[in-house]
Amino acid sequence: MSQNATVSNPPAVGSIATAGAGVVRTARHSRAVEAMARAGLGARGLTYLTIAWIAAQIAFGGTAQSADQRGAFEDVASKPFGRVLLIAMAVGFGAYALWRWSVAIAGGPDTQAESHFKRLLQRLGALATGVIYAGFCISTVLVVTGRPTSSSTQQQQSVTARLLALPLGRALVIAIGVGVVIGGIVVIRGAVTRKFERNLALEKMGRRARSWAVGSGIAGNGAGGFVLALVGIFLVQAAVANNPHASKGLDQTLRTVAHAPFGQALLLIVTAGLAAYGLYSFMEMRYRRV
């Protein structure tokens, strides 16, 4: 009897796992999950438009406000009904995280690569994106409740310092930095080749909407990839110098661009790209395949 029970357990476990995956897959196609995804995309759009607004102020003389997610949340909070809007954004970010995790588990329109390895990478990417947006949700809640939060640069320097303190820490940070640079280049390549179009229901768009979606997608993803590559370069520099303070988050990266030769013009171009990414997020909110 015990032997039979031992033999019968694995199929039972497999059946439960299969049933669980089926539930997740069914839930992912529900209207509620679709609404969650679109709410998160809307929150992302507002965040990047606000970051672009802060970056523009830096270009035209400077501001103490952080040009990153924290700064964007604080800027929104300072506006009339800002805290109400932040609560809605927190819900949106949390919903978006749940959606990306459901895609990581059950797959989705953006995890349909031909090879098993690429599908695995896409699912891992969805999982990581969910973690990032869960962090945005937490940061938004902290701002709403008036609790202190760290800027992107402070967070990155803290993590970099911990990594550098590990055995072979410098090599690890260099590897991560190179990976971030490569990631930025991949994003830029995706913008140029218009890979992002695969996630859009182009057949539902009119000519003008398609033009806005493609234009903002190219500019927004291109600018995002450029900034991501810069963040990776600063991370490599921090490892080479064994100085965690040389690493920079989004805010300090944009401020560094502002102080480069022709920095104002370059920062305004990047700012326009970040604003375009915000607009593209709203286009995704309406037309993304979920």
Number of domains as seen in the coordinates: 1
Number of strands: 0
Distance between the termini: 48 Å
* Coarse structural class: mainly alpha
Shape: globular
Order of helices and strands: HHHHHHHHHH
Percent strand: under 5%
Q: What's the helical proportion of residues?
A: over 70%
| Uncertain stretches of 5 or more adjacent residues | 1-9
- Biggest pleated-sheet summary: none
Q: Please compute the radius of gyration using only Cα atoms.
A: 21 Å
Structure description:
With 290 residues, this protein is an all-alpha fold. The chain has one domain (23-287). 78% of the residues lie in helices and 0% in strands. The chain is built from ten helices and no strands. It has helices at residues 2-28, 31-59, 69-77, 82-106, 116-144, 152-164, 169-192, 207-241, 250-258, 263-287. α2 (31-59) runs antiparallel to α10, α6 (152-164) packs across α7 and α8 packs across α10 (263-287). It is globular and about 50 Å long. The N and C termini lie far apart (48 Å). The model is unreliable at 1-9 (pLDDT under 50).
Main attributes of the structure:
mainly alpha, disordered N terminus, 290 residues
Describe, in short, the structure shown.
With 290 residues, this protein is mainly alpha-helical. The protein has ten helices and no strands.
